[in-house]
Write a structure and sequence with these properties.
Strand content: 15-25%
Radius of gyration: 21 Å
Helix content: 40-55%
Order of helices and strands: HEEEHHEHEHEEEHHHHEHEHH
Shape: globular
Structural class: alpha/beta
Number of strands: 10
Length: 359
């Protein structure tokens, strides 16, 4: 079926999407007009709950989503001064993520769509991260190259259209955000560890530890971070076994060295893509995902894109983490589900992006 984007092109009428995001530990409901204008976004975080356990507990996350989702929907409508009569379609993240958390959002969205007789749109969380840039850069349109770096995903895409993504490279094991969180945990930093690691890295010596940049044999654009994570954690454990003090300076040096190696791993793939695919040099580069908030990655990417004469788009920090506004933005471009697919919509824990074959 057609998308709201195609319907608007045909009749010129504005279209409004109410979207729900519950893929991990943020419950969020937002309303966006024409995929570009955020009218409201109500988000409930579970950080304090999961900090007690040093990471996200899936069952607790699902229960927290259930408790928050109805009230957040009412708040998003109230904040936008709209009612359900003003909504043209309901969008929901159905992949990838924690399966229980996803199902909470999908089931609520299906019920809301059925009760209000509104069409339903299924949205990929990774595409949503990329679409966060549409909310702050109205001139941004495909084709472009997207680098999505988050807690669960590290991928390089050729975005051919609003809905067609070609996978250039992806992580073979741990995602970048997971490495930050797990290293932060062994350093005794609070959860989530990304922001704390960013601050420490700014104070440390990036050459204090000799950490290698990984390469994936036969897949020059793919990423691998498990070796880096293991090397840093082993270093910390060795220090503890020897009775060496893990003082503030040492933590800063470890954070800086690990951050430097991780970013080099990302940048080398992007540089290789630039060198071997000259046709992309005129295309914009779009950064997205939770780790897009990392100041060191943003700086390195800016330097790299300037080197190759590419235009870089980076979302504001408020749109880097999980939020429903980005889901609503992408929902404007995705096809509306027919009645049968809307009623049988399911959630999927693993990413389902791949409408085009991998390069």
């Amino acid at each position: 079926m057609e998308s709201l984007y195609e319907l608007k092109k045909r009749d010129g009428k504005d279209r409004v999407v109410l979207a729900i995001e519950s893929s991990c530990d943020e419950t969020s409901v937002a309303i966006v007009k024409n995929g570009r204008e955020q009218l409201s976004c109500a988000t409930a975080t579970q950080t304090d709950i999961h900090a007690l356990y040093g990471g996200v507990v899936p069952e607790i996350a699902s229960r927290a989503h259930t408790e928050a989702i109805c009230g957040l929907t009412e708040k998003a409508l109230s904040d936008s001064s709209l009612t359900m009569d003003d909504i043209d379609a309901i969008g929901v993240t159905n992949t990838p993520g924690l399966i229980g958390a996803l199902l909470t959002g999908v089931c609520f969205a299906k019920g809301l769509a059925y009760a209000t007789k509104k069409p339903l749109i299924a949205i990929d969380h990774i595409k949503g991260h990329t679409a966060a840039n549409y909310l702050c850069f109205p001139e941004l349109e495909p084709p472009f190259t997207a680098l999505v770096v988050s807690g669960g995903h590290t991928s390089l895409f050729a975005v051919e259209s609003y809905t067609e993504y070609r996978v250039i490279g992806s992580t073979r094991d741990d995602a970048a955000g997971e490495v930050f969180d797990k290293v932060a945990r062994v350093l005794g930093l609070p959860y989530p560890g990304g922001a704390a690691m960013d601050r420490l890295a700014s104070e440390g010596d990036k050459n204090a530890l000799k950490l290698t940049v990984s390469h994936v044999e036969g897949s020059k654009y793919d990423f691998s971070f498990s070796g880096l994570k293991t090397a840093v954690i082993n270093k910390v454990h060795q220090m503890e076994q020897k009775g060496e003090e893990l003082d503030h300076k040492t933590k800063c040096d470890i954070a800086a060295s690990m951050t430097n190696a991780l970013i080099k791993t990302v940048i080398t793939r992007l540089e290789a893509y630039f060198e071997e695919c000259p046709e992309i040099k005129g295309r914009p580069i779009v950064l997205a995902g939770g780790v897009a908030a990392n100041s060191h990655l943003r700086k390195a990417l800016k330097e790299t894109t300037e080197k190759y004469g590419a235009v870089l788009y980076q979302p504001p920090l408020s749109l880097c983490g999980d939020n429903a506004a980005m889901i609503a933005a992408q929902g404007f471009y995705e096809p509306i589900l027919d009645e049968k697919k809307a009623l049988t919509l399911n959630a999927y824990a693993t990413a389902r992006i791949n409408p085009l074959k991998k390069a």
